[in-house]
Structures are given as C-alpha cells and as structure tokens.
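From the shared-data thread, chain only:
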Amino acid sequence: MGGPLRRAVYRHGHPAATRGTSGRRKRASGLWRYDARVLAVLCVAAFLGILSTIAVGPFLPAMAAEFGVPVGVLGQVPAGTMLLGAALGLAIGPLADRYGERRVLLTGAAAVVAGACATAAAVAPAMLVITALGSGLARATLLPVTLSAVSGRFDGAAQRQAVGMVSASVSVSAIGGVPVLTAIAAAYGWRASFVAIAAAAAAVMVLLRVVLPPDADRARAGAAGERGSRALAGSWRAQGAIGMLRPYAPLLRAPGARSVQGVILAATLRNCTAWGFLTYLGAFLVQVHRFGPQEIGWAFLASGAGHFSGSLLIGGRISPAGGPPLRAVFAVLHLVSGALFGAAFVLPLPALGVIPIFVAAACVTGAADVVTTRLLIAETPAGRATTLTLNGSGSSLGGAIGGSLGGVLLSLAGFGAVGAMVFTTGVAAGIVAWLSRTRAASAPLGDAAQALERPVPQTA
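Structure, as tokens:
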C-alpha cells in the first residue's frame, strides 16, 4: 500500500498530508498509518462479506448428504440469500448515504454472526432459511458499503488504489478463507466452519467500532439520540418505503443515467454467470473429478488467486496517462469470462485441464469487478453508496438467478447444461456492456481515472 496511499487525504475531520518541513513529513507519516488502519479494516469487512456468501458452496455435497436432499435443491439456499440481499440492498444504499457507512457496516457484521450461528445449528434444510436472512443482509451491506467508504475517504490516485485493494480482498476470501474452512471441516465437520465464521465476524465488529470514526457528520438527517440499528429502523418509520427509494431517482432520469443502468445490468448478468458456476463448483469437483474437502479448498484458493491477480492487474492499467476505451475493455472482459466459465463445465477435460480454465475466468472476473466499480464512481449522477449498493443488489439478483437456475439445470441435465447457461449469460453481459455506452462513457481508461478525482454528488 505504498505510493499514492502514503499521501492519502482522509476527509472526515483530519488534516491533509503534506510534504515540506520535517514536522509536516512526520504528520504525513502519522496520517498514513491511520489511513492504513482504516483501509485494512475495510478490506477485512469486504473479505468477510464475500466469505459468508460463498461458504456454503464447498460444503453443499456434505450438507446434502447429511440432510438427505439433492445438491441442486440445497443450492437454492445460497440463491435465496442473494435474492434477499438484492431486496435489502435497495434500502441499504440510501441509509449509508444518509447515516454513514460505519453504522451500516456494523449491522452487516452482526448479520454474519447471526447467519453463521444459524447454519451451524441447523438440523433440517428448512432451518437454513434463517441463514438466508443473516447472509442476505451481510451480502447487501459489507462489500458495496465498504467500496463506498473507501471512495469517500481517499482522494485521487489513493482512491483508485484503495478501490482496487478492496476488490482484491474479495479474492482473499477464496485464497485464504475457503481453504481454512475446508481444513476445519476435515478435522471437526462442516458445522465447525460456520462457528469459525461467526467468531471472525464478531472480531470484525470490534475492529469496525474501534478503528472507523463515528458517522457524526451524517447524523444531521436523523434524531440526535439515534444510534446504530435504531437509526436504521427509525428512518423507515419517518419516511416510508417510497421516501427511502427517492435517492435512486437520479439513476432513472438524470443525464448519463442510461450508461450507469447498462453497467449495473451487465454486472447483474456477469454475476449470474459467476455465481451459477461458483455455487456448484464444489459439487462438480466432487462428482466429476472425485475431489475431497481439502482438495476443494485448494481449488478455491487457485480461483481466488486468479481473481486477486485480475483485480490488481487492471488497477495498474488505469492511470491518468490514457489507455484503451474503458467501455470496450468492460465489454470484452464480460465476454471472455462467460466463455471461460462455460468451457470449464462443458469441455470433457481432466482436473488439470479444468482448473487453469476457471482460474483464468476468475482473473478476468476480478478485472471486470474493478472496472465496474470505477465506471460507476466516475459516471453516477446519484449518491456514491446509493449507486454501489444498487449495483450490489443487481449483482445479488444475478447471483440468485444463476444459483437457482443452475440448480434446476443440474437436476435435469447435468453440469453441461449449467455450463451452457453461464456461457449464455456471459455473452449477454458483454453485449449489454457495449450497447449501453454513451459518448461520455467511451472515454479511455486514463480519462475515467481522472474522473474519479472529481467530487461525487451526494444525496440529501
């Protein structure tokens, strides 16, 4: 986290880091340490949000065997989690813009604790519905609100680098999180893995409360005494559902809204591809390639490493010096990811041939995630958190469709049909990404990077 982050400006009551005298350099160094702590905690929160979402996938075969139901049926649980996350995300964005990210992130971490404990205690598939409630809220809050937080707390090149690091931290959930969970499951059973997730989420709650500054500057919209979840609940009583959705109006009517809508729709289709694949990757490796729990963990590690590499690679390519048209890169990334994910399920290859394909697909998807976030920050006519959580809702909806439809196709026609589905949605995402471009949205990579340095409008 060197370079621009060392000169980052934290914009909530802290002086700018400057260079010149030795005293100013010391103050800049102290500010750098403070910013590094904030960024590290936000990255951990994003990591937790994704890990809690993907944790069920590697254990679907074991859970299905214990509960006595087909894998395709049990796969509807993570699909339901994402569908609930899509609905909740519509409220989370305006709440984060209105009351601040810290409160919302604390609520999301608490939801992970509740959902993971419910999963560990489940004795029947029906009890996993409770899991979907906690995991859905976590899905709607932790990653999109974390991206909003780093976008608001860092400026210029530091902002671009911080967004890339948060996106890369998503990969670490597969690189480090899934192998640790599968190792725990191999020793103590799959339920112990979810106990570990609950403990990690409790630790993240403490870190968020200690390291992130209070959202006092945004509390003007609510009663002075409201705190935490009371602020979230009171906002609904004060405004009603229609009032809560008002911040989305610029995304429907403002100039340039069509371009932002296209980015969100393309991301929705891309997540239909990615989650349709990831939900059943564990079952595919067990049933087709005879992998055990720890081998599945290593496969997820390789996939996460690919996503991590793609996130960092594309971040290094976006610089003020200019580059290829960003929207063209956006469209090509979607097309390639769909083709690779589909090929991994369809082609009759041995394990050593399949793994490099889905690792490459994960690398492309990591790059697409970063480009999506940067396009939305640069082009949105609405609040930053509102836009990013709307995109998170679309992504959750895409994941729900991919997971649910994938389960149906798996039950009816096998993994080849799932591969055909993820290929089709990937191609559709690329077409939407290209057709939704506008003259303003066709700027080169460097122009988009410069746009990130301009202030982003906030909703009242």
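DSSP finds 18 helices and no strands in the chain.
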